[in-house]
Amino acid sequence: MDTVSTATVRPATSLNLLSHSEIAGVMASNENVYQLFRNCALAVLNTGNEQDDAAEMLADYADFEIAVVAESRGVKLVVSNAPASAYVDGVMIRGIQDHLFAVLRDIVYTDHKITRGGRFDLTSSDGITDAVFRILRNAGVVRPNLAPNLVVCWGGHAIDRVEYDYSKLVGYQLGLRGMDVATGCGIGAMKGPMKGAVVGHGKQQLWHGRYVGITEPGIIASESPNPTVNELVILPDIEKRLEAFVRLAHTIIVFPGGAGTVEEVLYLLGLMLHPDNAGMSLPILFAAPEGREDYFDGLDRFIRATLGDRATGFYRVINGRPEDVARAARDGIEQVVNYRRDTAESYAYNWTLSLPLAMQQPFVPTHDNMAGLNLDSELPDYELAAQLRCAFSGIVAGNVKAFGIEQVRRHGPFQLRGDPQMMAQLDRLLQGFVSQGRMTLQRRDYQPCYRIQR
Predict the structure, then answer these.
(1) Which residues pair with 286 in a beta bridge?
(2) Domains with residue ranges and CATH for the chain
(3) What is the per-residue pLDDT across 236-245, written as a single tens digit (0 to 9) for each?
(4) pTM listed for this prediction
(5) What's the farthest any 2 CA atoms get from each other in the chain?
């Protein structure tokens, strides 16, 4: 692979000073933290290269190195053997520089203030919510005195040109109406809305548009930040990433995707179905281009068959009509503003949304944990949604995350067991994703990382 031998980078906007213990924590004195920092930094430097196999990327740049160096005027990074695409005429692209220091900022903050510092209680629901807030605030993502206008867009990275262009058209209509966009920061339906919003903001001469990328270490290597992201934040795990999305969102738009998109939808429905969130205002839109109605038809059918008709009342499906999607998002934001004004809730961070501790604690996709999921139709709907979310989380890990891919390589496909009718619905949905090439970018010869036991 083409690389640049050595480059030195200094922060342009933040993180000029780190303590000696913070630098030591990132470097060789704590090998796990350093490897986490290195892998996330490499993913950022790989921006623009559409690849969703983390192990392949790490192997391609096995000789990549990065060091944090203290000096009299602050801190610098010494980068060796990084992807050449991160540079123009030998100088690292400014946006990638900013993302590189965002990685350092979030890894340092998480390790020192949360993991090693013990300043937050990660065993309680309130403590985890507070930790997510502080990570976002430290990254400058939570800001006071901003009008509520952040639309979270979810959707797949392995989508075709028709679905990508549609997501971009919706983003354009959002931008024309002054709305900002947050996504998982990768390619596909995460990139399209941001690119469209950039043009929409430009036409309206809105020069401070926000394109917020929210990711986590397990996924960033397979979904490198797209070039449009201008605010990047890395949460410690998928559960805190999901919590960040729902607490920041003023409206959520879901585009077609694959297993990862279903994971996000099930997480969201699990929250909305929970009795503690009765009456909560968080508008959800499912949006697909004309001719691609089958994606949400299939997902809606799966939701009705597993969680019941009540779950379908929390979302609205719009096919085609990008302008109507944007208008519905704008109306949704107005609903949220009125609700939060009436309840004295923060516009910037939805504190009153109740998250059960079980949905906040990390689910580790081992074979034992996947086989042990309680996929029983007798469970309360919100608990079943949470269990199904974990099943899809494991499938995502087996498809694109280094840890999950290694688990499957060593021990074979994950085994999923449960109610026979539910397993039939699950198999039907996943088989559709496989036939449509929605599981990974490697559309041919996909080998399932799961096996469904009926």
Answers:
(1) 254, 317
(2) 3-114 (3.30.1850.10), 143-343 (3.40.50.450), 357-453 (no CATH)
(3) 999 999 999 9
(4) 0.92
(5) 66
